[in-house]
Amino acid sequence: METKKYDYVTVEKTWQKKWFDAKIHIAEKKKQNKFFIHFAYPGVSGYLHVGHMRGFTYCDVIARYKRMMGYDVLFPAGFHASGIPSVGFAKKVERNDKETIDLLKKNGCTNDFIKKLADPLEVVKYFSKVYVDEYWKRFGFLIDYTRLTNTISAGYNKFISWQFHKLNDKKLLVQKPHFAPYCPNCGPVAVDKSETDVLCGGSSEILEFTIIKFTLSNGTILPAATLRPETIFGVTNMWVNPNVEYQKIEVNDEIWICSEECVKKLSYQFGNIKKLNEIVPGKKLVGKKCIVPEINREIPILSGVFADPKIATGIVMSVPAHAPYDWIALVESKQPIQPITIIDVKGFEDNPAKEACEQLKITSQTQIEKLDEATDLVYKKEFHTGALNDNCGSYSGIKISEIKDTVKNDLITENLAATLREFSEEVICRCKEKVVIKNIPDQWFIKYSDETLTQNSKDYAETMNIYPQEYKDGIPKILDWFDDRAVIRKGSWLGTEFPFKKDWIIEPISDSTLYPAYYIFSKYVNEEKISAEEMTEEFFDYIFLGTGTPESDVWRQIKSDFDYWYPVDINLGGKEHKTVHFPVYIMNHVAVMPEDKCPRGLFVHWWVTQKGKEKISKSKGGAEPILEAATTYGVDAMRLYYTHVGSPFVDIEWDPEIVAKYKKRIANIYKIILELSEKKEQTNMHLDNWLISILNRRIKKIVDAFENFDLRVVSNEIFFECQRDIQWYLKRGGGDKTLINKFVKIWITLLTPVTPHLAEELWQILGKTAFVSNEPYPKFNSEEIHERDEIGEYLLSEIIDDTSEILKVTKISPKKICIYVAPAWKQDIFRKAIELHMDNKLDVGVLMKQAMSDPNLKAMAKNVSQFAGKLPGEIKKLSENDRNRYLVDVDEKDYLEHAKKYLVDVFSCDIEIVSADEKGIYDPANKSKFAVPLRPALYIE
RNA sequence: GCAGGGGUAGCCAAGCCAGGUCAACGGCGAUAGACUCAAGAUCUAUUCCUGUAGAGGUUCGAGCGUUCGAAUCGCUCCCCCUGCACCA
């Protein structure tokens, strides 16, 4: 009979409908044994790609496993709608961005519908539906869909508002100045690599220049910007661009001269800047002198065309001994100025800049690449091994790596310097305006630097289950490093209004810290059992903190739900959350929630990348859409792919060919299982014992791996090793119908969490009517372990390996194979040796003494001593597993006799099995003496 | 700069924390064979080098070292990658 082909499309659809109709995905309180797992909910940013499904899949696999292990599982999900993404998406629709419109059309949106998506709220609504229907349900995730929610709903807003009141009560909200990217037209913008807000410059960094106030003879300030304030002691001259028209401005009662571009920057960062409408041409400054602050040295102002008005103040101080650019410029200016060396550093004589230029053969300012290299070289060396020398007054002798901030802070304290922040490269807003850095004098922060909070969080994290271990080990450092975070922003983005400042919105990281708690409420909100208005401060206090009195039965029900399900057992998220979301997740719980309601575990998974290790991104065009992939490969194949292709803790590269292979494997397993039920009846006690025994070993390994969330080991055992076992069993001639049925039943149950659709289909074919998804997961049964038969099969496979090896090397076509099993006395003495070794008493002398006390052994003392002589060395090399194997009493000859038929089949020749010490055996090559336990001697002819 | 991750055979990728079961799981690719009219799928064998008896040699970025024994531990070096804050 021809086996039916696996029709994954129908199978997936059928079973998903059945599961959801039967509501097996809904979390219920039944067993007094709960497991709460959720993934870091996705931001609503548009269509997702196959990379996103990795973590979601892990979550479902774990949730399904836990369900089968007898837990009430709560696996909810929601949408992070706060922040920019959905606003950004709506803007793209609004401005008719072609790529976006095409994409929407491709996904079946009509023109009329697309128009609606110019509203961010519609974007959230639309994509929430897409994520649920086309991704999560399509993958068979048993998410409790009655609890879906998002972060811009009225109830959620109340929840966040409560959280911020609590933070404020605990004095964890503070106000202080903050510098942030800002577009003069659009307000605050996000500068990040994905460039949602900006046209270019997304990977720009904010540099902190120190402006040092040099003074002209009339007291006017010539502000020079530097990243190395400690080099002030080595300044020999200033560079001013003769082609630039500088501006005169008033800054806090001081008169400054700087470039036009700088004036703008200062006005955003300093506040009280007054333009004096007086232009100072650069060439008029050239030739004048100015005073270096702090050391009061007079230096000349020289012409330097490279002083870029766009960078910092447009005025540069020159340190020719330590800056290769300055050195070359000075050489080319032909001015009789002596460099001043201020840093002693290994590997350089008295002028590092000069020496680096010579080393790299730099002779002109135009050799920019080489100059950058030289600069890098000098800076690195000086930073790591350099120290200020006697030219630096009270700072002399201090290492550069330690002095940087000190000099800067001292100068600022004395009002001789200021800080100017600037992007490392130009950033342009989507509106084409240049993005600046703006000072927000009274920004609100969550005080993550709070020592008590940090310490408590570290202590708490220590008690959590965090995967992988390397991440857990790093958490204390991350928490220490995690600084205060600005939490509000005024601009066009979604979120909860900050309760202490009207019109300002809480930023998205800060409104996603306690959110799994909201899944407890969302069910009641969705069922309209409670309204946002009823969710008062007292309400949340009652639920979370147990204070106050309930005002209704719904309050009591919700409280009982919260107490049942909380805390979260696993929060699962991608590695991008390591230093952002997870730290605040822990810290806010620790700050606000009672300790027994703080999260129990974190699971961090790595990414799916494109070829060349790039993170998959839509803009790079490499992402395979989820629906397309699901249709091409089937979701079980993808689920298996995610769990098996690599450890959860490494990036995996999306490769359609590999996924296709997993698809074939699914079909193959389907075929194998169907064929198994058609086998002819044939019993073989040894072999049957082996199969049930090895199956139990697999179960143990699988369950152990599951408990550690080691999903790769899980799927490798289930989908590869189990298949290998049953194939070996069949090949060896196994065919016990009852046993095969048992194996199949267990195998299907084992594979359910990873490939549930396949499992249900097979389960039904076996004639079962209930869902295999609701079956208990197989348990290890020590009574079904048969060590002797395991060892027997091991012995057999070793013999086959050895024989094949000999045949390969000698190129003999065998007519007869003689197997000489080790004599009983060798087994005895082997076992004695191992026992001695375990007592740590093994040496040849002791072993011989024991052996000789046995009259049977004494009779053949010569052979015994020869054999025993080599034993200690060999036994030491054995692993514990091997050693244990020798301790089991197996009748090798008997076992092999039972397997003789198989050996004859494999090698197509006569097989003779004898004991090596039998009298009169056929042994022309005198091989039999080499027989040792579990390693019979062989002779082939 | 600060913090973190990594370099394993043709490729992907386990192993490393707890040294010996490691010539190194598994997959892909390749080669040969079986099945097939054929293709695909599936199965079987081989896939670092040498070898007419189950062996030996050389490997896990490089180099030292610890050890009876190192892919695994320590030190030094080289190379790649990620995050660093208002993007989630």
Terminal residue distance: 42 Å
On the 0 to 100 scale, the average pLDDT is 89
- Portion of residues in beta strands equals 15-25%
Q: At CATH's second level, what is the architecture of the largest domain?
A: 3-Layer(aba) Sandwich
State the fourth-level CATH superfamily of the largest domain.
HUPs
How many helix segments?
Answer: 34
How much helix is in the residues? 40-55%
The description of the largest β-sheet is:
7 strands, mixed
Commentary on this structure:
By secondary structure, the protein is α/β, with parallel strands linked by helices. The strands form nine sheets. Strands 6, 7, 8, 12, 13, 14 and 17 form a seven-stranded mixed beta sheet that branches. Helix 19 (581-592) links the parallel strand 24 and strand 25. Helix 24 (711-731) packs antiparallel against helix 25 (737-751), helix 28 packs across helix 31 (861-877) and helix 29 packs across helix 31. The protein is globular and about 120 Å long.
What's the short story on this structure?
Helix content is 45%, strand content 15%.
Features:
globular, Isoleucyl-tRNA Synthetase, Domain 1, RNA-binding, alpha/beta, single chain, 941 residues, Rossmann fold, Isoleucyl-tRNA Synthetase, domain 2, 4 domains
What does the secondary structure layout of this molecule look like, with pairings?
Blueprint (H helix, E strand, L loop, with lengths): L7 H15 L11 E6 L13 H16 L3 E3 L10 H10 L3 H9 L4 H6 L3 H17 L17 H16 L3 E11 L3 E2 L9 E3 L5 E11 L4 E6 L10 E4 L4 E7 L2 E5 L1 H11 L2 E9 H4 L3 E4 L4 E7 L11 E4 L5 H10 L9 E2 L7 H8 L8 H18 L1 E2 L11 H14 L3 E7 L4 E2 L6 E11 L4 H12 L2 E3 L1 H13 L3 E2 L1 E2 L15 E2 L11 H9 L10 H9 L7 H13 L4 E5 L6 H12 L8 E5 L2 E2 L16 H8 L1 H10 L7 E2 L2 H21 L8 H23 L3 H21 L5 H15 L4 H10 L21 H24 L5 E6 L2 H15 L5 H9 L2 H4 L2 H17 L2 H8 L4 H7 L1 H8 L2 E6 L21 E4 L1
Parallel strand pairs: 1-2, 1-24, 8-13, 20-25, 24-25, 26-27, 28-29
Antiparallel strand pairs: 3-4, 3-19, 5-18, 6-7, 6-12, 6-17, 8-14, 9-10, 9-11, 12-13, 15-16, 19-21, 22-23, 28-30
Helix pairs in contact: 1-26, 3-6, 10-11, 11-12, 14-15, 14-19, 17-18, 20-21, 21-22, 23-24, 23-27, 24-25, 25-26, 28-31, 29-31
This protein binds one RNA strand of 88 nucleotides through strand 3, helix 15, strand 21, strand 22 and strand 27.
